Amino acid sequence: MGVGLDGARVRGGGARPAWERPAVVGVLALTAFAYLWNLGASGWANAFYSAAVQAGSVSWKAFFFGSFDAANFITVDKPPAFLWVMDLSARLFGLNPWSVLVPQALEGVACVALLYAAVRRWAGPAAALTAAVALALTPVAALMFRYNNPDALLTLLVTAACYAEVRALEGARTRWLMLAAALVGTAFLVKMLEAYLVVPALVLTYLLFAPAPVGRRLGQLALAAGTVVLFSGWWVAVVQLLPPSARPYIGSSQDNSLLNLIFGYNGFGRLTGHEAGSVGGGPPGATWGLAGWDRLFHADMAGQISWLVPAAVVLAVAALWTLRPEGGEEVRRLRAALSLWLSFFLTAAVVFSFARGIIHPYYTVLLAPPVGALVGIGGEILWRRREERAAARGALAVACVLTALWAFALLDLTPGWLPWLRWAIGGVGMSAGLLLAAPRLLRPVAVATGAAALAAGLAGPAAYAMDTVATPHAGAIPAAGPSPVGRAGFGAVRAGGGGLRPGFAFGQRPPRRFPPGGAGFAFGRFGGFGPPPAGGSVGGLLNASRPPDAVVRLLSQDASHYTWVAATVGANPAAGYQLALRRPVMAIGGFNGTDPAPTLAQFRRYVREGRIHYFIVGGLGFGPSSPAVRATLLERLPPALRRRLSFFPPRFELGARRAPTDASQITNWVESHFPSLTVDGVRLYRLG
Q1: 176-188: per-residue pLDDT in tens?
Q2: Distance CA 559, CA 553 (A)
Q3: Domains in the chain, number
Q4: Which ranges of 244-289 does DSSP label H, i.e. alpha helix?
Q5: pTM of this structure
Q6: Do 553 and 461 share a domain, yes or no?
Q7: Which of 295, 396, 522, 593 would be a feasible disulfide site paired with 589, CB 3.0-4.6 Å?
Q8: CA dist 57 → 8, 41, 474, 475, 556 (Å)
Q9: What is d(CA 16, CA 167) in angstroms, rounded to the nearest whole number?
Q10: Are 612 and 562 within 8 A, CB to CB?
């Protein structure tokens, strides 16, 4: 039976330590408070998905398919399971930012609780509490569990699958293994193939450590594979078997096929960089940052997740080495736990590091549970053996010193933000590391040193997490913590902060410092480039439009007589109008404006049938528009910034000659056949 830091038995008939229950309740309560506090300040957060929630809250067909609009013209770029939770909340409590975001926060609290439960079963309450706190304070977790992207539910489901795996490993229990498989399959309906990053860890750990004959283990895993396919595939099968006329267009696919979305844009295209319809289009691996083993430590990702990564790896590997000569059921389970979380972490980290397609820093929230678990379990194992094993003391000291040094380096990226903190962490962490290496410490000194080491390790991510909680965020690609020098945000907007600081062009490694006044950029920020226009904006590639009141009043007139109250290029420009009007707005070309939906012929038929009221000009900053609109955008770009956009393909180069797309053909047809009117700076065409 395991022994925690206080000597209490953690399994069997031993009583729980007196501090455990209040500590756990306190951690969960503080997590809930932090994740729920001032949640509505972010407004619609990712308005693209909030607009889909609006659609799903009034149309069961939109609910099932994950449609962007209640008229079911096109779906979002992901499967709909993560929207279902928010859709039901909006149906119960009405559509508002709280009903959209509270489910995400509660998913975060549940994830912290599940990680605690999974770690505690084999490693004890101290390790479990450390893991739970580390997860709750991970900056990217504090961000995504307060946001309406699909990653919150994805992280919860794969953490739940790991908990079910732990239960299955205790007695080779088939029902728990099937539950783990079902949870992975459900996670597939949240974010497709990314959910399968946990599968190698589940399979490998079960094969190596399940207490059953090899034949039985293989049979159970075969059943689990079938369960994954069943839970992953039922919705896919329904959508694929329906004729296209009976369902919306599959957003972000290039052929109206869900399989194209699964294996292309949201699948292997993310690994190879060849993603039809993507907003990038530069050489694979350039547009989204250079791939490589150190990608998690680059300026754009490091502050999100990497604070405890060195410690997690050092502690896990050292703990496995320390357990090598030992035997018994407890040791088997500890090895299994370390193998499960370490293989999960390594699989996801390798994929995120070497993917050459679309990769955003917030994806790393999936790494937060295994990092927390490895720190908790590895630290507990080494702490128990520190007095008799020099290797254990050395590993604890190395992990502590590495964490302090890396926190100092990360905080040095924001030299004007809490400048004292990096020195405090460095001093406490280095001192604690040196003491941990000592062979003999009085118990009070040892406990105080361990507590100081833990506090120093968590102080940096905690400060970033608190900054994240205190700052509203908006747009498609949010980022946690203060913006370090050298991190550019591709559409990341801190709605209540100063936005992005000087950054770097994607495809370049960030330099150590930029000169004062150096140019940075954020696509989609404030609906385009530069400061937000007064009164509203037409929206951008990654940020929603902000419709002026006069435009909303105009579009509201006779809106009930039309299927779509308006149409515009791109889903984010359409999202702001749809949320303001609570009526369907057609997102021509889907999220990126590049989907071949609708065709010009289809759009002309809709207009002829009187189904679309207005066409709104502007849309995506890179989207098709008239020469006058392109010239206006070009005037807002300094020459140096335009040169930074040179990695985009011709279809995205502003003002360049491009092959006509469906969206550009529709725009040109509207501009040549209908008179325009301008209302509060927004140009519209009345189509019917």
Answers
A1: 999 999 999 999 9
A2: 10
A3: 2
A4: 258-260, 269-272
A5: 0.87
A6: no
A7: 593
A8: 50, 22, 22, 21, 20
A9: 20
A10: yes
